[in-house]
Design a protein that fits this description.
By secondary structure, the protein is mainly alpha-helical. Helix content is 80%, strand content 3%.
């Protein structure tokens, strides 16, 4: 069932989404400047945060699938969610940063498109935010991929 969000709830969701973008941007800047935080190289900060967020988004797919009445579709979403989560985890294991960033950059539009398959269950405000954040995240990945 589609929840109707108040203006305040919608604004808070956008605030949290934007706050979640900050570590992507900070990690990208650190990676591009070959900087480290607490001794951790910028590219590792970027890749690890990206993998965590990709996995989190896959968890939301799983949670939405649990609420669905169509068993076959829900089962398919759960399988896709798990496969994408494993791909995000694998990115952390790559010794080559370019491979990790490239895989993660590919995953975000895939995750977004999986979410589009059940868009009727998502509020317009949330979907618009996810689209904007996905674009920003892909751009950050492209920048790191090009310059690192």
């Amino acid at each position: 069932m589609l929840a109707v969000l108040s203006y305040r709830q919608n604004r808070f969701i956008w605030l949290l989404g934007g706050a979640g973008l900050v570590p992507f941007l900070a990690g990208a800047v650190a990676a591009l400047n070959e900087a480290a935080l607490l001794g951790v190289p910028g590219e590792h900060l970027f890749v690890s945060y990206s993998a965590v967020i990709a996995s989190f988004l896959c968890g939301t797919i799983w949670a939405n699938a649990l609420q669905m009445k169509q068993d076959k579709f829900a089962f398919s979403l759960m399988m896709v969610s798990n496969a994408l989560t494993l791909a995000a985890w694998l990115s952390i294991l790559f010794s080559h940063t370019g491979l990790a960033v490239g895989l993660l950059m590919f995953l975000y539009p895939v995750i977004f498109n999986v979410e589009r398959t059940y868009r009727s269950e998502i509020t317009d405000g949330y979907f618009t935010m996810r689209k904007a954040l996905t674009i920003a995240v892909v751009i950050a990945h492209a920048a790191v991929l090009i310059w690192v």
